[in-house]
Amino acid sequence: MKLVNILAGSPQLPDLPIDFTNDVNWIGVDRGSLTLLEHGIIPTLAVGDFDSMSEDELRRVKNRVGKIIQVDPVKDDTDTELALSQAFEKYHANFVNLYGISGGRLDHFLSNFLMVLKPRFNQYAQKIKMIDQQNIIRFFKPGHHQIQAVAGYKYLSFITLGAVQELTLPDEKYRLQDQIDPYPTAYVSNEFVQPTANFSFTSGTVAVIYSRDLKKEQ
């Protein structure tokens, strides 16, 4: 499986990977490129308008990264969308892990979360995972799916994105049977009761969110 990791521009600690690994291809988005370099990783590609960097910081990126796509700040696609397009179309990723998607800003988070509904990306929905230090988000197309519990993530939520037909949760802690939602609906704080859980639906897109409460510092 060809995995591509994308680090978007958020420098916030909760948005960053818990462990940076150098054994996969990384794409740095805007300031995410600089963050990767600071963690000892030279991204395969840096992409964005780089308007969040100083001239000196951008020079550092250009001196270290072999391939850079710099675009005009006035554009139709977000920097993250450009990176995701490159991951699938240029690097032929079988799976993409996307980090740094919010930086604490809800508009950035929603832009990244909802881009999976765009037709050009929706075809790849099940190959995209969004990760921060408190959440793992996956996306699913219609059908029957089985997912596995992840150690440390207690909660399991199902978010219907648009009209979803016949959502069935047969073996989670809180069950649903053939639920029809004509509008987006969040079924939150469910839980695994076994190492795996099954669910199914017949139309639309569903986001599945693994989440956990961060320990409070004493």
Listing every helix as H and every strand as E from the N terminus to the C terminus, the arrangement reads: EEHEHEHEHHEEEEEEEE
From the coordinates shown, what is the CATH architecture of the largest domain?
Answer: 3-Layer(aba) Sandwich
The gyration radius over C-alpha positions equals 18 Å
What is the terminal-to-terminal distance? 41 Å
Helices, by number, come to: 5
Structural class call reads alpha/beta
Care to count the β-strands? 13
CATH class descriptor name of the largest domain:
Alpha Beta
Give the biggest beta sheet.
Answer: 11 strands, mixed
- Helix percent band: 10-25%
Count of domains = 2
> Roughly what fraction of the amino acids lie in strands?
35-45%
Oligomer: single chain
Explain what you see:
This protein has two domains: 3-133, Rossmann fold (3-Layer(aba) Sandwich); 138-211, Thiamin pyrophosphokinase, catalytic domain (Rossmann fold, 3-Layer(aba) Sandwich). The chain is an alpha/beta fold and 218 residues long. The strands form two sheets. Strands 1, 2, 3, 4, 5, 6, 7, 9, 10, 11 and 13 form an eleven-stranded mixed beta sheet that branches. The protein is 20% helix and 37% strand. The mean pLDDT is 93. The protein is built from five helices and 13 strands. Keywords: ATP-binding, Kinase, Nucleotide-binding, Transferase. GO terms for molecular function: ATP binding; kinase activity; thiamine binding; thiamine diphosphokinase activity. Pfam families: TPK_B1_binding (PF04265), TPK_catalytic (PF04263).
